[in-house]
Design brief:
Helix content is 43%, strand content 16%. It is an alpha/beta fold. The radius of gyration is 23 Å and the shape is globular.
Length: 353
């Protein structure tokens, strides 16, 4: 029995491909139940974030190619999707998870959100009963590695979230954010980091909207902003400068039809829009309107790469540290499999010889 990882990420697929494979938090219990039915899978954990959808599984898979696995899981799998998939096995899989948990495989190297996202994915799997002895050990070890990498290196120095990178971009366009009207749609972790980042750069007119008005109020209180009921955010577009959206909606919540009805009232005033959601919250068609400048997760990649000088210098130290943990995990695997083999062999008692 071995450990496999099947998946795709921002390194292999653009945002329009990733969003088709994304699995929301609310859909994870159903997805994990479906994972149990994939032939050969004995354990499984699903990690699905803005930048990756990865399946960590164990078992004796008859055909362990990535396309075969995805065909068993996704009914709408397309043949052309094969070029975006990857498959990792044994130590390659272990090494990859340790790097992901440490933020080394993230779009913004060193970001910390992925650590919590992996923990949540593991909690879902343990709750669904899909994580057994091997994956329990693997994910617990990944948490240890992620903490050690961040505490013993400078990998988290500088802007380390898509939210902070978004604000960097907004400052490049507008300069001083003081006096700009900014709306945050969604009240999750990414929205919170973005709201705090714009506040720290001098923004004072911050509006927060979420399907849960209580969550919007909580975030608005933290950032000194004002909460808006979810159905009331559209009229605020009249004099809005920046909109950042990061919800868990399964489809776009901001469409060309919605904006076109009141766009003329802005008198061609430019609007800077950042879509941090997966799947995307903002229909790319809104760019047909003059004055809209839309950036999605892929758009932020080039900006993120320009901030990585220090963290890239630290990467080699991180890789060396991780490699020691990979070898430790392999040793544990070898001992475990040897003990399992011995337990299946009948050893005759001396008195019976």
């Amino acid at each position: 029995m071995s450990i496999f990882c099947f998946g795709l990420s921002h390194r292999t697929a653009a945002v329009d491909v990733r969003e088709r494979f994304a699995i929301s938090q609310s859909a994870l219990p159903t997805a994990l139940a479906q994972l149990k039915t994939v032939p050969g899978v004995t354990e499984g954990v699903i990690v699905s974030t803005c930048n990756r959808t990865e399946f960590y599984v164990t078992g004796g898979l008859a055909d362990n190619s990535a396309p075969a696995f995805f065909e068993n899981f996704y009914r709408d799998f397309r043949a052309e999707d094969e070029i975006h998939l990857f498959r990792l096995c044994a130590n390659e899989c272990v090494r990859h998870l340790f790097r992901v948990a440490s933020g080394l495989e993230s779009m913004v190297v060193g970001e910390t959100e992925i650590f919590g996202q992996i923990k949540l994915a593991y909690q879902h799997a343990t709750g669904a009963g899909t994580a057994g002895r091997l994956l329990n050990r693997l994910f617990q070890k990944s948490f240890q590695v992620g903490k050690q990498v961040r505490s013993s290196t400078a990998i988290t120095r500088g802007s380390v979230s898509v939210g902070s990178i978004s604000v960097d971009l907004a400052e490049q366009i507008f300069g001083d954010l003081n006096g700009r009207k900014i709306m945050i749609i969604g009240a999750g972790e990414t929205s919170e980091k973005t709201a705090k980042a714009v506040r720290s750069r001098g923004a004072e007119q911050i509006f927060v909207s979420d399907r849960s008005f209580e969550r919007a109020q909580a975030l608005a209180t933290v950032t000194g902003g004002r909460a808006i009921h979810f159905d009331d955010w559209e009229p605020e577009f009249r004099d809005l400068d920046i909109l950042v959206s990061s919800t868990a909606a399964p489809h776009p919540i901001i469409t060309l039809d919605k904006l076109a009805t009141f766009w003329r009232a802005r008198w061609n005033r430019p609007l800077f829009m950042i879509d941090l959601a997966m799947p995307r919250d903002i229909d790319p068609a809104v760019q047909k309107l003059d004055g809209i400048y839309l950036y999605d997760l892929d758009s932020l990649l080039n900006i993120a790469e320009r901030t990585l000088t220090v963290r890239k210098q630290e990467s080699e130290r991180c890789y060396q540290l991780i490699e020691r943990h990979v070898q430790e995990f392999q040793s544990w695997m070898d001992r475990t499999q040897a003990l399992d083999l011995l337990s299946t062999v009948a050893i005759p008692h001396p008195l019976c010889s």
